[in-house]
Fold these 4 entries.
Entry 1:
Amino acid sequence: MEGLRRRPSESEGEEAAPHTRPRQSDRPRAPWRNAAGFWLLGLCNNFSYVVMLSAAHDILSHQRAPGNQSHVEPGPTPSPHNSSSRFDCNPISTAAVLLADILPTLGIKLLAPLGLHLLPYSPRVLVCGVCAAGSFLLVAFSPSVVISLCGVVLASISSGLGEVTFLSLTAHYPRAVISWWSSGTGGAGLLGALSYLGLTQAGLSPQHTLLSMLGVPALLLLSYFSLLTTAEPQDPGGEEEAETSSRQPLISNETPESKPDVGSDLSLQEKWTVFKGLLRYIIPLVLVYFTEYFINQGLFELLFFRNTSLSHAQQYRWYQMLYQAGVFASRSSLRCCRIRFTWVLALLQVPGP
């Protein structure tokens, strides 16, 4: 239980600074352990979320043999589910898996500011690990599509709760860990989609593929409780901070000498001023997520080439893997280059006619 004492002792509030510091002998290893720890946390946190998206076609086609044993199609399906359409689609669109994978996460992020900070980090991480493992088990042994979607909801709860937890935890570590977390989430996209594709292509059933991934939630708990070093109070003016121009206050009349009280409430006008200052980040982000999900769960299911050696389900898994490879490259580029005009990248993701 040593890990329970190594995190910020209270709930995640910004004022809750750790009361212990690492031993002097631990300091040379601390940067590497924290970098590896947050990369693995990002990887494990998003892994189940990505796998559920990659398995969306299998989940909804509900390819179960007698005794609830899943199997992989040996070849392309000769006829579509809907004979009146040239598209080989499931009766339920893969967007159903997307909604089950997104809506719980969205709800957690909307409700988190209301009181999630009152719950300490360790119990939240345990819930993330249990939900991730439960999602793999529930989908693997599901007797129906509805139960499978409940398993997807568990994966969404794990990912959403983990994201708000680990991102808030970065405030207790050097600023560089954010880039490692970002790279880890990108790695989850690539490794999650690639592992599901590779194992099913090798002949493993979707059910056994999901069961083989139960080690990922265990790695999440191990990374948090054993790999991360003791958190230290961070100096916001340290050398790792971004340049001054990127740290300007969102409310123009706020000066460094006259900071408002932490507990003071902003007026409606001040909140509107803050919101307007964030629009240049919000609009490209909304566009990116809209186009991402439109492509992943709207177009990929329709892209089916019949005269190939790959079945529809196999083609869908390849599309997911290739897309996640691009996500990994983009999320790992923070330490390589910085692009100021992010709206350009958002426009590039919009699918053409």
Entry 2:
Amino acid sequence: MGDMRIAVVGAAGRMGKALIQAVWSTPGVCLSGGVEREGSHALGQDLGEIAGVGHLGIPISDDPLTVFANTDGVLDFTAPQASLAFAELAAQARIAHIIGTTGWTEGQDEPLKAAARHARIVKSGNMSLGVNLLANLVRKAAAALDTDFDIEVLEMHHRHKVDAPSGTALLLGEAAAEGRTINLEEKSVRVRDGITGAREEGTIGFATLRGGSVIGEHSVIFAADGERIELAHKAEDRSLFAKGAVKAALWAFDKKPGYYSMADVLGLSD
């Protein structure tokens, strides 16, 4: 069996370039195509040159159908609506679709489960090993600690990030909610302003910071009277997310169609 062919959608973006670099530098995979939206300045440019890895002879296209028909997997860190459209094409092509897209609204990703009947979809709010290990620890801590311990999720990202809380913060909040066997949507507190009253027992709070060039910092705080436990992760290089996505693609290559997470990829699913 030859190298796994991987295409990158949103190829000209910051994450797109990091994904191209990660595929180019990883044994066992090769770049097969790149996709950008219609009208993008990057259309027709060489996939390797735009990412700084040299000429590859692969022009960036606005025709995902053709690209998907000639690849084994797709790496996708775009936007929810685009990812849904790409998932339909991945199902038609019966390939692996690795989704690191964030900013999903409640229930918006439900169509992905239908696409996963034919595609191997791996979706995660964060593709790094460290964050997924952190989520596993958060789940176990939340299960072990009773509601005397309040749970707060704190995150900071660069000034250009458009969604809040981050996908990673929500991933960690979901882990805490699973540990507590509660529904995150019913128990999360996203905004505090003015006279809010005392903190409601059993809720999970989120705090969001934005500024500078911070790639991603997340902490989950378990706070009780007289003591506090903090579990944290700091991302110092965007490439760690890209490397995680390539790892997910290689893992999904020979799997049955289905809807998977990074916990499955990393063997952290209980």
Entry 3:
Amino acid sequence: MDAQTKTRPFHILALSGGGYRGLYTATILRRLEEALGQPLARHFDLICGTSAGGLLALGLAAEIATEELEAMFVSDGKRIFGSRSLLRRVLGKWVLAKHSAAGLQAVLAERLGEMTIGDLKHRVLIPAVNYSKGSGQFFKTPHLPKYETDFRRRLVDVGLATAAAPTYFPLHRIDGVGAFADGGLVGNSPGFFGLHEATRLLDIGDDSTVRVLSLGTMTRGATLRGSAFLDRGLFQWGAKIFDLVISAQEAAVNDMLRHVLGNRYYRIDDPATPDQSRDIEKLDVVSAGATTVLRERGSHAAQRALGDPAFDVFRKHLATPPIFYHGPNKNTGVVTC
């Protein structure tokens, strides 16, 4: 990376996971893109996304219109979260995953086709958990010489990997790589991963201003009623344990980024009111009520951000065209930074 690039501001977009609540994020992205008048990805030097946020991040980096990304939830939400045979209706969540991955796979194939990470126009970082080796794995564009394999991965496979939420969807196997579970298990809010990528791996210089714009999904803090039974086994925990993991992680990352970056960290999210919580309580509920809440609150959140002077730095920033070292978008013969 050249000296001039190291001193320019470096902006990171971080998109959280949240199942169908990703519609809230998608609505914000659409409204921001409309206001900025060009593909939103061109304003960010690195796009990070987990689970539903990972699907959006891949779409943004491919410069798919945000209107189409929003439609992926509105028009196809029931296909994604409705692939339930009679067997899954009886055994789903307890013996089998609640939903088949067939609906999500079909929706992703229609929008992403046979594109690979190497076809993307902007840097991405997509967390998942490789259950075959028991650790997190991060799919990345070839923006460093050592990133020699991920550019071959199909976007459909990466999307299925990062969104394989335990109890909701089956694990997703990528042949020769591993069986993957939802990226929310390692980092539902991926802003800190993006900050590490920029400062420690891309070696953005100390003279450069690194900022993070983080978008949530109206994440409900997973909490316990005062009268709840405390001695819980698998039956009582069920999918709630995954909800608790992503909620706790998101809160921790939010606090740490505020501490580390101060006013260089900007967060767009909203708490649900008690009445609205009933509509969006579960990650996989696709209903008219949930759709209305998520789209209306997303539109208001975007309008609030666009009117906030603190958001202006993100509006005005244009990313430096990325250097890719491998794949169809390779644009350098240099093998070292």
Entry 4:
Amino acid sequence: MAEQFRAVEDFLTCAVCLETFKEPVTLGCNHSFCSDCLHGHWDKNQTRNCPVCRRKSSKEGINVNFALKELCVSFTDKLKSKDRASVCSTHPEVPPLFCTDEARLLCPLCEFSLHRDHTVVPVEQAERELKEQLQSQVEALRKNRAEAQALEQIYRDTQRHAHRQAELCERNIRAEFQRLHMFLKEEEELRLSSLREEQSRQAQSMTSQLDRLKETLASLEQNIQELEKQLEKKAEDFLLSYSPAQSPKEPPGPLPPLGPGLLLNQAKVLGNLAFSVWRKMGQKVEYSPVVLDPNTANPLLSLSDNLTSVTWTETPLQVPENPERFCVYSVVLGSVGFSSGRHHWDVEVGDHSLWNVGVAKESINRKTENPFSTDSGCLFLRRITGRYYTDYGEVKLKQKPNKVRVQLDCDSGRVSFYDSRDMSLIYIYKNIPKEKLFPFFSVGPTNYDDDKCKTTNIRICATSNPELNQD
């Protein structure tokens, strides 16, 4: 039965559109097509050939084959009847209903009484409502897809930036170690030169001692030869020639012992070699009490390669919007926070016209809120329009500080600001937040006000290495 059905379906299918005939026409070669499909084919190919056998049609006007059309209509009805029969084979002609509680089609004659307590609606209504639900789900999924695609792009941008960070770090590491290698090479040459000087001193001392010993040996040898000649003479000759005045000199006293300094002074050459080189190296390198964290820096801030100075840049840097970064305000934090002990660092501000230095709590809002307030968790000293301010108002200063010391005492709960020149107090914040506090820096454009400043950046000053100061 299925094969017969498929044969009829093939017979009623247009060879051009591959669908059931619509307004079928038949050519002289007995091949049939939809009227629109046939004329469209002819117009497109500028020919009147049959699309199947390529035979040219001689008919000027082609009429609709109504018998074939009726057959197609009947076949279409049978298809619909066949679809409906899948719901209820007993009543295939009765349109089904849809039960929303059980989410299925049902026969209104056979099953309606079983669904009296259910919500039963026409198929058209069920189709419309369910498609509206699906459309809503599709829109929600599309929104989720767009958000996921945007997040994926952020991850890709972040990964590319991480690669650039790795390349920058590698360049800086290689440059620093190259500088240290050169220093160690120079120190190696100095130590080898010191060794050669010690070798020269030892050789000179040894030569002097050997020369004196050779003179003594030569004198002794001469005396021995003279005495042996006297001993070889016969008695008459010996006695006739013997004279006390001609007898050899008295033999020398005991030979002098070995003098000091005949060996290399290894202790001088090798003593504490690595330690002394390390201490000397410590004098050549700088130690910064605070290292800036580039992952927190606003895109308008540019950090130095050693992460100790910050400059305002007119063109935003291409950096990802990661959670740690300040997105609105030109702020950067130190890389290490403090929750106990006393800490201080000096910041060289020069004559820069717009800057902020201080500390900020770890939970400070980095995306939208203004961070420059104690309510936000920031304790700062600011210079703007030639004046100095804290969150509590203007601070009058006798002189413009070139360097500002920030001193954090977590145990007593205070943050103090000093003029590093004479350590005169500028301001003290008391009752600071109890959570971990990070060094806080902000800088603006140099042309913010009418001051013609020469300083373009603020810089954390290097100090002596605390490791080298330990006894």
